[in-house]
Amino acid sequence: MAKVAVIGVGQSEFVRSYPGSIRELAFEAYRDAMKDAAINSEQIDATVICSAPEYDKQRTPAGLMAEYLGLNPQPTFYVESVCSSSSSGLRTAYALIASGLHDIVVVLGFQKMSEITSADSQERMGRGADIQWEAPFGTMMPAYYALYARGHFEKYGTTEEDLALIRVKSSTYGRINDKAVFRKPLTLEKVLEPNYIATPLKVFDCCANADGSSCIILASEEKAKSLCKKPVWIKGLGMATAPITMTERDTFSGLRCAQLAAKRAYQMAGITPGDVDVAEVHDCFTIAEMMAYEDLGFAEPGKGKDLIRNKETYKEGKIPVNVDGGLLSKGHPIGATGGSQIRTIVLQLRSEAGEMQVPNAKIGLVHNIGGVGIYGNVSIFGVE
């Protein structure tokens, strides 16, 4: 298999209400990534644009972005797998380069969630479920993940305090991330205040919608070595899917798509979970991070709570997770989220993460989930 590297990364600030247009929002991440890669638009062979279209007023935003960024007439693709769109975009770009079709590909993710009202946003999220058998009954994302939290609690004895400890960790690192929406530390007592959204999940167990963009630039081995002093190589990619309807699921204590995607990524990379130095996981809810510890093999099933209780997922721990604050602190601009996670890992592996830096990080992992475990992407990166 041909080698493919990340040669540039960029991200806008994640905010609750961006004042400009989606093209201006996307440009912020693109500009930063192009500066990081030190290339110009004429060197880009193709572009992969990623968002969840139900939140976009603009039909076919890929065409809009290509025009605005000066990337015509190169090929432009549009990729969507809801919350994991830009990780699916990474997989697409990797394939385009590994096949020999292109040498340098931009993966640009964006979402302006404030384009529509909160009520409309929640209704459209609900339509991420089966619109015949589930969505008409008012299913929403917090309720779905509350279902998984209940399943995990009953099977393994996990508690609300265990989940709250994850949110406390998130706020610890969100405070030092200048791209994050929420930058105030939270106490355990504050997180445990009984402001329930969907029992047992409370306000601080849930991430918030945000506006934002992210950009990743990939290159072939030859181009990466000639253009980049610190290429970060894609070592493993795993992707899997699961039934969209909850009645077809066989467990509510873990996400099968994540488990299978992780297995495939580890196999491709030739590593085990114990080789990972730093990870970014999809913590749309605190229970999602808890399940990720176990789905990725960082802990045995039911033992994820021991990792957070012992602070093993802090920067100084055995397996640092979401030391940029995760979705819980950064916010969740759906199409941009995966690219933001990838950016964090690339900075970690280049030893450019500042206060968030994990010492001697050589292998990093990104776990990005679409919907309630409908799509699972696991991507592994290395510096050698």
Automatic annotation (TrEMBL):
<keyword id="KW-0813">Transport</keyword>
<dbReference type="InterPro" id="IPR055140">
    <property type="entry name" value="Thiolase_C_2"/>
</dbReference>
<dbReference type="Pfam" id="PF22691">
    <property type="entry name" value="Thiolase_C_1"/>
</dbReference>
<protein>
    <recommendedName>
        <fullName>propanoyl-CoA C-acyltransferase</fullName>
        <ecNumber>2.3.1.176</ecNumber>
    </recommendedName>
</protein>
<dbReference type="Pfam" id="PF00108">
    <property type="entry name" value="Thiolase_N"/>
</dbReference>
<dbReference type="GO" id="GO:0003988">
    <property type="term" value="F:acetyl-CoA C-acyltransferase activity"/>
</dbReference>
<dbReference type="InterPro" id="IPR020616">
    <property type="entry name" value="Thiolase_N"/>
</dbReference>
<dbReference type="InterPro" id="IPR002155">
    <property type="entry name" value="Thiolase"/>
</dbReference>
<keyword id="KW-0446">Lipid-binding</keyword>
<dbReference type="GO" id="GO:0006869">
    <property type="term" value="P:lipid transport"/>
</dbReference>
<keyword id="KW-0445">Lipid transport</keyword>
<dbReference type="InterPro" id="IPR016039">
    <property type="entry name" value="Thiolase-like"/>
</dbReference>
<feature type="domain" description="Thiolase C-terminal">
    <location>
        <begin position="245"/>
        <end position="382"/>
    </location>
</feature>
<keyword id="KW-0808">Transferase</keyword>
<dbReference type="InterPro" id="IPR020613">
    <property type="entry name" value="Thiolase_CS"/>
</dbReference>
<feature type="domain" description="Thiolase N-terminal">
    <location>
        <begin position="21"/>
        <end position="184"/>
    </location>
</feature>
<dbReference type="GO" id="GO:0008289">
    <property type="term" value="F:lipid binding"/>
</dbReference>
